[in-house]
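Predict the assembly for these two chains.
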Amino acid sequence: MKKSVILGAMTFAGLAAGAASAGTLDDVKARGKLNCGVTTGLVGFAAPNANGEWEGFDVAVCRAVAAAVLGDSTAVEFVPTTGKTRFTALASGEIDMLARNTTWTFSRDVDLKFEFTGINYYDGQGFMVPKELGVSSAKELDGATVCIQTGTTTELNLADFFRSNNISYEPVPIETNAEAQQQYLAGACDVYTTDASGLAATRATFDDPSAHVLLPEIISKEPLGPLVRHGDNEWGDVVRWSLNALIAAEELGITSANLNDMAAGTDNPEINRLLGTEGTLGEMLGLSADWAKNAIAAGGNYGEIFAKNIGEDTPIGLARGLNAQWTEGGLLYAPPFR
Amino acid sequence: MSGTHAHTVAYVRDTMLPEQAPPASEVGPIGWMRHNLFSTWVNTGMTLLAVAAIYYVLAGVLPWIFQSVWNADSLTECREIMMETWGSTHGHACWGVIKERWLQLLFGFYPPHLYWRPILALVLLLAALSPVLFSDRVSSKMLILTAAYPFLMPFLMWGGTIWGPLSAALGFVIGYLIIKHGSEKLGELGAMIAGVVAAVIWWFVLAGPVTDALSSALPIGIEAVQSRQFGGFMLAIMLGVVAIGVSLPIGVVLALGRQSDLIIVKYICVGFIEFVRGVPLITLLFVASLLLNIFLPPGTNFDIILRVMIMMTLFSAAYMAEVIRGGLAALPRGQYEGADSLGLNYWQAQRLIIMPQALKISIPGIVSTFIGIFKDTTLVSIIGLFDVIGLASAIRADTAWNGIYWELFAFIAALFFVVCFSMSRYSMYLERRLKTDHR
């Protein structure tokens, strides 16, 4: 997720940003398919099912954009990317957008010449320990062995956290999440640290999840969101407002169940503007009037997508937390559709 | 004399004793064990230790393999069944994941209603290889299939119009005809250069428009399949077969080029071999997947699988060249001189005298390289292609199967073992068949 950026990737990303063709929106319409970069597999966020169809929280963003642009949520070519290939794939134009739980950071936005179009998941780095260790706070972890993915920002965050609290730790470097699960269960490390969503998903797979606890400290900010190439603002707007439409739909009470009723026209002018029965928002984006309706029809509003893929009723069981609407104490706050 | 002797000896046996069976402790399984396993105290001790170690491993592995759950839709369900049946979740495999995903592990995302095409391609591959591998048992008429296979395989796997593979084949035909009939007018070297140039012109300039025109006039073809849908063990076999099949001839040419007296040819070959051998395969794969994207003009659609195939082929060709050079170096000088004294020219000498012997010497090395490159195909998972290893992590990312680990790798290991072990056995068979010395 936060693999350190290879120097070469930066250089070439910078070189290619200028070379990539200007009108991604026109390209996608002409091609009739959206090329969307996803992970090669992350529980709850993107994974192919037994029939080879992609499912997950990030995948739903791709489908919503495809539905908004092309009116068909299945018109997506999912391009699996690894932590090392994702930025070059986007910079070189192999993919039109990247929805691969990528943390929005200054250098990625500014130096790598990408444009983050919003945040679809607020994550943060946490700790998991076995209950029998009797630890209730990360500050009690002095001298602990910690399983940590190498070459990621989690590694740097961990070092910062332990240094600022003046306690010591012994890192156990591991390569992938699957390896980390094995090492942690085998007792090779006392603590496993990665994004809180990843910890929850990992704990859910254990024989006895209740024997492990997530510590309350969240030691970093990991705003994850879709991104596009710098400099193609029309296309960036399409992706940004497709995501905002999903978030606004939840706030306005539009669900996949009542979508068709609402699209017939309501008393709420903002719903009407969003769903295209009033105003010309779709036209301004260069899309059809019912673009947002299609985006919402693809997988429901933000809340429905969350509940279906990573919410409390799934094995992953994430609470909304920071990802609740601003009206309910969370950080999701879509600008007005006006 | 005999009379006196008869009186001094009381009894003389005049018939042979019947042969007795050897003592039970010296023959059969017991005898073999006494001689090989328990001959001394040290041996006995080591035997007992080895038996204990084997028992320890099998006692863990066999129940894991056979006391396992096949009918489950998720890891959680597997664990529930294990708890009900054995009262513990440890030491039991959950093969439910293989049962649900084995087709995906074999074929990737290839459309299920077209599975017959990769299967047919595999069957045809075996048929096409049979006259080469078992030349003493299979009619050489099958070689026609072998020659057609390189064009048949892409057509079956990718589908689309039939004119693409046909026009690619036509390039070879054009080149061959020019070399065959032009040698009187142009001389041998001139004809060869003219043939190659004509074929290249056909492929890169003329074939595209001609194919397009033909496919719009006569649209014969089968459903096309995108490269992104390729995956699983099928991808490993496909990459492996192409890399193996193409790298051998390229390797032979490179090895000959390295020993050539033509200075430019020699240094081109040396430079290529040393460069490719000096770079890790994973670097070449990153070049194929990332850098080429940047250097090619935007919008160029250069198939990712084709790029990976080219890189893997070049990589194994460099190694192959060195293996074959080892075979060439092992031939005594007299073989070259013998060929010269018979009045054979360079190519005749290579074809009839040098190569058959050099290749025979190199068989173990060649097959090791084959097995190595076949296993290296799993590296493509790092650049985001879904081979078996990539699929294994994708399957683990499914909420139903997150946390499953050993079962997938055991299945993949079994697949690879079958293929690699067959290659190794075949190379031993080939060595026995070609053995002409009297050691």
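The radius of gyration of chain B is 31 Å. Chain B has four domains: 24-66, 70-110+227-439, 117-159, 160-222.
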